[in-house]
Amino acid sequence: MSLSPTTIETVKATIPVLKEHGVAITSRMYDVLFDKYPETKDLFSSAPEEQPKILAAAVAAYAMNIDNLDALGDAVNKMAGTHVQTQVKPEHYPMVGDALLIAMQDVLGDAATPAILDAWKEAYFFLGDVLIAKEKELYAQQ
User: Fold this and answer.
1) What integer pLDDT is reported at residue 142 of this predicted model?
2) What is the pLDDT at residue 94?
3) How many Å apart are CA 53 and CA 68, to the nearest integer?
4) Which residues of 101-126 are buried (b: 16+ CB within 10 A; e: fewer)?
5) Looking at domain 5-141, what is its CATH homologous superfamily?
6) Where is 130: in which H helix or E strand?
7) pLDDT in tens, 87-140
8) What is the pLDDT of residues 43-100, one digit of tens each?
9) CA–CA separation, 140 vs 125, rounded Å?
């Protein structure tokens, strides 16, 4: 499976917005996530205080390399390793995705058009599938 050309183009077009508002989006995402899905809070109990900043940088890097995912191989491996350590499971991805899209809408308001939200939904779940597959390998090795 691959991302649609429209999604790639739309996500790449959001890079300046992510650079400007990324930390606000990810900070809001964690607020939404923990409020709407309190069972996820324990997954982040060992996360560093600067986690929203780290995630914002990762989201921006994904957007910048969405048409060249091989460039993100090391980052994907590191994320997958962290997810296995903290017991992230496939069922958590829809919760985080929902919180991310709500946060984008909250922070960006009308600028978060349906086309942008749809593109990010496709992009998020595409990357989620990549991470879930890698995590499945890592869990099997344990």
Assistant:
1) 83
2) 97
3) 23
4) bbbbbebbeeebeeebbebbbbbbeb
5) Globins (1.10.490.10)
6) helix 114-141
7) 999 999 999 999 999 999 999 999 999 999 999 999 999 999 999 999 999 999
8) 888 888 999 999 999 999 999 999 998 898 898 999 999 999 999 999 999 999 999 9
9) 22
To the question of pTM greater than 0.70 for the whole model, the response is yes
Nearest partner of 38 among 101, 92, 114, judged by Cα: 92
CB 44, CB 86: distance < 8 Å: yes
Helix axes 93-108, 15-36, angle to 10 degrees: 120
List the chain domain ranges: 5-141
**Which one of the listed residues 39, 93, 124, 139 is annotated catalytic?**
93
Spatial contact of 122 and 7, defined as CB atoms under 8 Å apart: yes
Catalytic residue among 30, 62, 124, 135: 135
Q: How many residues does the chain have?
A: 142
Active site residue 124: no
Active site residue 135: yes
